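**User:** My hope is that you can spare some time for a protein that puzzles me. I have put the entry right below:
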Amino acid sequence: MIQINENDVRNYILKLIQENKSDSYINIAINSIKFYYESVLGMPNRFYQIERPRKVKKLPKVLSKEDVLKIITNTNNLKHKCIVSLLYSSGIRRNELINLKITDIDSKRMLILIEAAKGKKDRYTLLSNTLLKDLRDYYKQWKPESYIFEGVYGKQYSAQSVGQIVKNAAIKAGIQITVTPHMLRHSFATHLLEDGVDLRQIQVLLGHSSTKTTEIYTHVATTTFKKIKNPLDI
């Protein structure tokens, strides 16, 4: 029986790094090795000293308000316009959008109920006056029965279709980067922050469990940089 020691494991991990395997691939490999030795063979935690790849911290990609409005203008029909407008004006996730029901729209309080969102927590977010007018026209035209946006035979709209709607409208609008539904969520949060909305309030609207997650938007909000005088302009 071939004996494998900690150096062998380290060399294997090093080989994965040299082969340019992704950080997630390497972490899965390390976890699998640990599970085998610790859970299957019942050995002590002998491989904790292996250095794991650090998670890359990327800043969210944000669109300007002008570009968002261009995308909304370049949607194919009223239904698509409502989908893109809702993603941006409420900051909801794509999955939350396709789960929205007609009864989740509270036009009296101008709020949208997001039920069992990420982390299994309900929350409210904003309902736009502009969007409400479009939603009412959309309802009369498309007559959804349960979900706000329904596919064939009244079934739930697909997440893939939502992504394609956003992508196609952005291409028609002449946006030079690939736009995703989540980019509209990032833009919603960033634009609120730039308009002076408190970070804690944005956290509640987005459904983040910690302000640390929401703080990422301080790194991309233009208000962070407007107070700084560029040395070339002095």
